[in-house]
TrEMBL record:
Substrate binds at residues 8-10, 24, 43-48, 51, 77, 115-119, 146. Its cofactor is Mg(2+). The record marks 115, 146 as: Important for catalytic activity and assists the phosphoryl transfer reaction to Asp8 by balancing charge and orienting the reacting groups. It holds the Pfam family Hydrolase. This is Beta-phosphoglucomutase. The keyword Magnesium applies. Its EC number is 5.4.2.6. PANTHER family: 6-PHOSPHOGLUCONATE PHOSPHATASE, HEXITOL PHOSPHATASE B. CDD domains: HAD_BPGM.
Length: 219
């Protein structure tokens, strides 16, 4: 009765969200803008250039740089982020994720990945998950970033799944909006994702039987 489950990457499969934060924080400091973990919530699930724009707005410096200067800044942040990715191993898969994926697959339900990151394939390789998902949608395959539904709809389409009978799992507010706009059932990881259909505090609380039961209650 469930067609497919589509996972977000950063913050659901692994905690690269923290590395994104460290890299943006250092870049922002160089131009005298301070960002903290709370501000970082707004960058989750948001594309690289859009994240930079939000940071510049935060420091009231949105008109201070040319496009090529912004591209240089985004590139610098990415190089720093990629340094962190070199340390990534399968040990960095978040608790409960392998168990969840195993339970879903044992019922023959296909799984997809929806990440707006251009580094998604590098991250999957480092985690040794490159062959785990039946279909991966990354930044190269979509025009519009989350919260637009395009990324989750593309995943459902490729998995031949009806979005209304599919589940999306996200840690970002923009991601939950994207899932809801796709008419999928939204599972939120984190305690501020109020628009989720079902919410857990952390990945170790993700349980396939419970998720299915919550989905059934909603239909
Ligand atoms: P990159 P997700 C998103 O990945 C991150 O949540 C977001 O913080 C990041 O800015 C974005 O990817 C772009 O990443 O700079 O590597 O292309 O959560 O959709 O897996
Ligand atoms: Mg995420």
């Amino acid at each position: 009765f469930i067609d497919a489950v589509v996972f977000d990457l950063d913050g659901v499969i692994t905690d690269t969200a923290h590395y994104h934060f460290l890299a943006w924080r250092d870049l922002a400091r160089e131009i005298n803008i301070d960002i903290d973990e709370m501000f970082n919530e707004r960058l989750k699930g948001v594309s690289r250039m859009a994240s930079l724009e939000l940071i510049l707005q935060e420091g009231n410096r949105q008109n201070d740089f040319s496009l090529s200067e912004k591209e240089e800044m985004a590139e610098k942040k990415n190089q720093h982020y990629c340094q962190f990715l070199k340390q990534l191993t399968p040990h960095d898969i978040l608790p409960g994720i392998i168990e969840l994926i195993t339970a879903i697959k044992s019922e023959g339900v296909p799984i997809g990945l929806a990440s707006v990151s251009r580094n998604a394939s590098t991250v999957l390789k480092a985690l040794q998950l490159e062959d785990t998902f039946d279909y991966v949608v990354d930044a190269s395959k979509v025009k519009k970033s989350k919260p637009d539904p395009e990324i989750f709809l593309t995943a459902c389409n490729q998995l031949e799944a009806n979005p209304k009978r599919s589940i999306g799992i996200e840690d970002a507010s923009a991601g939950i909006d994207s899932i809801k706009a796709s008419e999928m059932f939204a599972v939120g990881v984190g305690n501020t994702l109020f628009k989720s259909d079902y919410q857990v505090d952390a990945t170790n609380e993700l349980n396939w039987e419970v998720i299915k039961a919550e989905y059934i209650k909603s239909v």
